[in-house]
Amino acid sequence: MNSTVLSMDEIINAICLHMAERKAVNPTEVQVELSWEEDTGYSAEVWVHGRSQFLVESNMIEAILRYVHTEYGIRAYREDVRLDLDEEITAVVTTD
Fold first, then answer.
1. Structural domain of residue 53, as residue ranges?
2. 81 in any annotated domain
3. Is 80 exposed, middle or buried (0-12, 13-18, 19+ CB in 10 A)?
4. Which of 58, 65, 79, 91 could form a disulfide with 6 if both were Cys (CB 3.0 to 4.6 A apart)?
5. How many domains is the chain partitioned into structurally?
6. Is residue 24 part of a domain?
7. Could you give the CA distance from residue 81 to residue 69 in angstroms, rounded to a whole number?
8. pLDDT-based confidence at 96, cuts 50/70/90?
9. Helix (H), strand (E) counts: the chain
10. For 77, phi and psi rounded to 5 degrees?
């Protein structure tokens, strides 16, 4: 089993790239703020052209899966990704 750990910055980059593609804008036009709440879990607030949108954990994982595939050449599945909270939010991608 191999594990790849994505930093908070990489998670933000993954979401920026994902949302930029979905909204047909440049990644630099996307702002992301990650958060964790005890009652709602992991989420991200995304701003594109001044409009705010909330992403839940499954949306974040979708972006992470695309990112690890394009940036690292890793084919992973939803169940292979675990979000962690230590001093910052990280993602652990485990593959065979």
1. 2-91
2. yes
3. buried
4. 91
5. 1
6. yes
7. 13
8. confident
9. 2, 6
10. -120, 165
- Pull the structure tokens for residue 81: 């990704």
Q: What is the pLDDT of residues 60-73, one digit of tens each?
A: 999 999 999 999 99
CA distance 84 to 11: 12
Tell me the per-residue pLDDT of 21-76, one tens digit each, with 9 for 90 and over. Answer: 999 999 999 999 999 999 999 999 999 999 999 999 999 999 999 999 999 999 99
Which segments within 1-96 are labelled E, that is strand? 2-6, 30-37, 41-48, 51-56, 81-85, 89-95
Measured distance CA(96)–CA(89) in Å, rounded:
23
Q: Is residue 96 one of the residues assigned to a domain?
A: no
The residue whose two tokens read 């990489």 is: 10
Task: Residue count of the chain, please give it.
Answer: 96
